[in-house]
Amino acid sequence: MADYLTDIVAYHRRRAALDDESFTSLLAGLDAIEPRPSLRSALLASAGLGVVAEFKRRSPSKGWFVEPETDVATRVSAYERAGAVAVSVLTDTPHFGGTLADLERAAQHVELPIVRKDFIVDARELLRARRAGASAVLLIAAALQPEEVASLAGVAHDVGLEVLLEIHELSELELAELAAADVVGVNQRDLTSFRVDTDRARRVLAALPPGAARLAESGVRGPDDLAGLVGFDGVLIGEACMRARDPYATVRALVERGASVHQDLRHHESV
Ligand SMILES: O=P(O)(O)OC[C@@H](O)[C@@H](O)c1c[nH]c2ccccc12
């Protein structure tokens, strides 16, 4: 049986093969579009463990988190008011129920840095991300050949996008250098099985490259799960933010705990 990641990436490769819009036409006028604020800077500047709150309508393993017609603007505005340092928007349609229009609408409603969360295998999607208002794009190490990581990251940087390189295994870390990644994300969810290991980020933390911002991803159910992520610059939280009846209160509680987690660490260092 094929795994989730293989199926999803195969879909995106087929789609790219059928895409007849040219790179050059998508590039036209792009440099006139104002760059968005930096994800890396927002993470590094955050007082504690910064919360990157995600807009994810559904997932392949868990189904819908919200009504399909849920408006992205209301929710990401609540994330912003609650003190999230950035917003992540899923734009994959068949598996996660998102669209690039969701990202565009989010970008019109918040000032925060925005990450385009998708399974990007084709450089034209980078140009579309930039046009829609993304600050950064996700590149998934496990979905790409090393030379694809290098070339996609190069194009992303050329058009003013930051690169969030997602790894799962330590063996993928050398790609962070190859991509000159601005942010390295450690996904605690294995994208082949969608199983979560909530200790994974903590275990690989010490090996992460010093230049990039460090983001722990997936599996955080609430504030109590943040203590183990001390040392990261930020944490990416999707399902818990999406299932929340009151996204403002939920994100606020996560933000407050995220800040205090680091105060604890500073306290330990000074004694
Ligand atoms: O809903 P969670 O467990 O809080 O996870 C959020 C985010 O990490 C997850 O959506 C994610 C991480 N990497 C991805 C790659 C593709 C799609 C989705 C993801």
Structural notes for this entry:
- By secondary structure, this protein is of the alpha/beta class.
- The chain has a single domain (4-270), classed as Alpha-Beta Barrel (TIM Barrel).
- It has eleven helices and ten strands.
- It has helices at 4-18, 23-27, 39-45, 72-81, 100-109, 123-132, 146-158, 174-178, 200-204, 239-243, 247-270; strands at residues 50-55, 58-59, 63-64, 86-90, 114-117, 136-140, 162-167, 183-187, 213-217, 234-237.
- Strands 1-4-5-6-7-8-9-10 form an eight-stranded parallel beta barrel, surrounded by six helices.
- Helix 4 crosses helix 5 and helix 4 (72-81) packs parallel to helix 11.
- The longest helix has 24 residues, at 247-270.
- It is globular.
- The N and C termini lie far apart (53 Å).
- The structure holds indole-3-glycerol phosphate (IGP).
- Indole-3-glycerol phosphate binds at residues 54, 56, 117, 140, 166, 187, 217-220, 236-240.
